[in-house]
Amino acid sequence: MTITNNLFKGGLQLVNEAGVKVGGSNLVPVALRLEKTALDPAHKERSNAKLVLSNATDSAALSGKIELVQPSAYAALLKPIRFAGVAYGDSTAIDLPYLAAASLKFKVTLDDGRTYLSSVKLAQTFGGSMTGDTSDAPRIDLSAQDEYAGGGRSGAADLSADAGVAWDDEKLYFDIIVRDDVHKQSYGGGDIWQGDSIQLGIDLNRGAGAASKQVSELGFALRDDGSVVKWRWKAPDGLQTGALGADVEATVTRDAEAGATRYAIAMPLDQLHGAGFDFDPQAALGFTLLLNENDGSGREGYMEYNQGIGASKDFTLFGDLYLLDGRLQRMVAAFGPGGRERGKGEEGRNVDRRGARLRGAAAGGRGSDGARRGAGCIGGGGRAAYADTDAYASARDKWTDRIADTDAGSRDGHAHAGGNA
Ligand SMILES: [Ca+2]
Ligand SMILES: [Ca+2]
């Protein structure tokens, strides 16, 4: 059973593992929710995601720090930031840098020592422009236990993935490195989901919501006999389900010693929408990635980045995938796992090396946005914030500053939205 702080959308969720009925509300004083908007190339100085922290129950003002703990790739990069003076019923809005993640898990530590974990759904991914044979967009980290559904997962070496998305005018490219200790795939055709495989959900008309007819659910697998299966369970209007043709390229390679399976897929865009549909690469696509797990004794479970394939077939639950063009690339590439430091043809992306490169990328990107821009606006009440500052760079620096305990509020005077309007 899950119980939530029901006064605030996106409130903290506690899971009762005792298996008995539990009632109540306002269980914790802090509630987190995410305010997300589409990327706006005309305003790259504005963050497109704000974390809103509310004081839901405490008569005393709340102070403390908040830190990202998941995805782990970003947790290694972002530093805790402080909040202070959040009175009962008030909120503080904290801009987030451009992050690629299905969800973000934060740890809130109040100054009196109480700690809380809370997740918010971000559902945002970036596909980089294809340059050479790789992308420099932030990569996907699918490694947390709570992204797994099933039994018996022992950790990242048992099942996890590091994935990248790229595009050009002709194709979408996926580079998916799955860590899996045992590779097992004896199924064929539409049954490959029962063995080790990946599934991709892609919606090229996400703006139409549940009415979209441009939705694909695809599967790729390396069989034990060495052959590769390319399958489509759901097709856009006018296209066929079933085996995918030779124009869909899928190279799947297994490195048993490293315990890794790499899926390199090039999917023609015209295989992702029906004839006559005008695909707009500036609009967010729908995207979900799922890993199926079989270590030799049947399907054990799956890991899912975003939603809409595993638990229920519902493409409206896919996340947003932004295809970065020149304008969007400059917004995103300065920050994030894989941003800027990728794309140099290096292999062997183990986590430690990746972490080291991430930190280098962040340091190189800081402050590079240059020109100061006009005021953005955060929080309620029409209160202008970030006057005469580069708001996005400010937000990014706040999370990436080495000074972990800097008080965000006293530095910038903006973090206490609602507290002194
Ligand atoms: Ca495994
Ligand atoms: Ca396996």
Distance between the termini: 39 Å
Please outline the major beta sheet.
17 strands, mixed
Shape: globular
What is the level-2 CATH architecture name of the largest domain? Sandwich
Helix proportion? under 10%
Arithmetic mean pLDDT: 80
Protein name: Carbohydrate-binding domain-containing protein
Pfam families: CBM9_1
Organism: Cohnella rhizosphaerae
Biased composition (Basic and acidic residues): 339-355
What does this entry look like structurally?
InterPro entries: Carb-bd_dom_fam9. It is a single chain. It is built from five helices and 24 strands. Strand 15 and strand 16 form a beta hairpin. It has two domains: 163 residues, no CATH class; 186 residues, Immunoglobulin-like (Sandwich), CATH 2.60.40.1190. By secondary structure, it is mainly beta. The radius of gyration is 22 Å and the shape is globular. The longest helix has 15 residues. Bound molecules: calcium ion (CA) (2 copies). One calcium ion binds next to strand 20.
